[in-house]
Design brief:
alpha/beta; Aminopeptidase; 2 domains; 4-stranded antiparallel sheet; elongated; binds zinc ion
Length: 359
């Protein structure tokens, strides 16, 4: 009887000894463009308990305090040695727009996943790839949501924690400067809408950067330079950040784009958002504050679910058309840095009022 049990146990361990190397053999296939999520699930998840135990043993109490309660290491990434045998300098950057964390290894490694180990939890990871960029090796990790990434290096390993934004910030705001890059938006007298939108957003950023209130604000921009994120990326940023507010900045044009007397600020909202503190009320708050700050007249609110970023935003969304580029006076204003600052101040005040009202 006992012999049989022993036999079964022996067979079990022999099989395990065979299965584990076979499973690990699959890892070298993890390569450029390979979707790691499933592989992590299959091959690496089992290592998590060990990895997290190791990690806990390596931490000293001070570091645990510094990390803050509730932040767990999600990934442990083995760092390559350089030729002198020292751990390579690395950089970790997050591209909020694509929810991708880039770990740059200053190391001459062609295929990271065949040579080094990565352990951890896969539940936040949508995909992973390794590629060479010049002299660097880059591990690109795309996550299911936008996280704040915490990092530390210890004993030759890089530890990454993906922290929910709302664990760090009281409020998360997404600011979108319309158009960009090849997509100029409206053009009048050689003035491009994309540039006015960006200038207003950069003025707003300056004000938000010097916010000194009691809320911890997490503010993310779809662009701060002349780039052109897709509409999907813009809306996804708001949704994947679980944003409390999503504000898009544009300038208007009337009908065929000829100069007319039509002027004023217009704010677009989602009519399918019927929350009390939803898109429409946010649009009204934006209207009140932008017109107060600029002295511009209110052209009105407009239901605009036909616009992609408005229709798909889970956050209360307002698209502020600051003024008409097809009105000569307003075009002059919109191109003027002082007026842009006033418009930015109006949007800033709107954000503060929205939070006061409970958004
Ligand atoms: Zn526009």
């Amino acid at each position: 009887m006992y012999r049989n049990i022993l036999k079964i146990i022996t067979v079990f361990f022999v099989m395990l000894a065979l299965i584990v190397p076979v499973t690990l053999e699959k890892l070298p296939a993890i390569n450029e463009k390979y979707d790691m999520a499933k592989a992590l699930e299959d091959n690496v998840l089992q290592n998590y308990v060990k990895a997290s135990t190791d990690a806990k043993q390596e931490k000293n109490p001070d570091e645990i305090l510094q990390k803050g309660a509730g932040f767990e290491d999600d990934l442990r990434i083995e760092l390559p040695d350089d030729s002198e045998g020292e751990r390579q300098s690395i950089s970790v950057e997050t591209d909020a727009l694509t929810q991708t964390v880039y770990v740059k290894l200053k190391a001459d490694v062609d295929n990271y996943f065949t040579k080094y180990s990565m352990t951890g939890r896969s539940n936040h990871i949508d995909s992973m790839q390794y590629y060479r960029k010049g002299a660097d090796g880059v591990i690109a990790i795309t996550t299911d949501k936008l996280y704040q990434v915490k990092q530390r290096i210890e004993n030759g390993y890089l530890y990454l924690s993906f922290v929910n934004l709302h664990d760090i910030y009281d409020k998360v705001i997404i600011i979108d400067a319309g158009h960009g890059g090849r997509m100029t938006g409206a053009v009048r007298n050689g003035i491009e809408e994309k540039s006015i939108n960006l200038d207003i957003v950069l003025a707003l950023k300056e004000q938000l950067d010097s916010y000194s209130g009691d809320k911890r604000l997490g503010i993310f921009y779809t662009r701060t330079t002349d780039t052109n994120p897709t509409l999907q990326q813009r809306a996804a940023l708001a949704n994947k950040a679980d944003a409390d507010l999503f504000i898009s900045v544009h300038c208007n044009s009337y009908e065929k784009g000829n100069f007319t007397a039509v002027s004023g600020t217009q704010v677009l909202y989602s009519q399918s958002d019927n929350r009390e503190l939803g898109s429409k009320h946010l649009a009204q708050i934006c209207m009140d504050n932008v017109t107060a700050a600029t002295g511009n007249r209110a052209f009105g609110l407009l239901p605009a679910d036909d616009i992609y970023i408005i229709r798909t935003s889970e956050a209360p969304v307002a698209l502020v058309e600051v003024g008409f580029m097809t009105n000569r006076q307003e075009l002059d204003n919109l191109a003027n840095a002082d007026y842009q600052k006033q418009a930015a101040q109006g949007i800033y005040n709107a954000i503060m009022q929205a939070f006061d009202e409970g958004y």
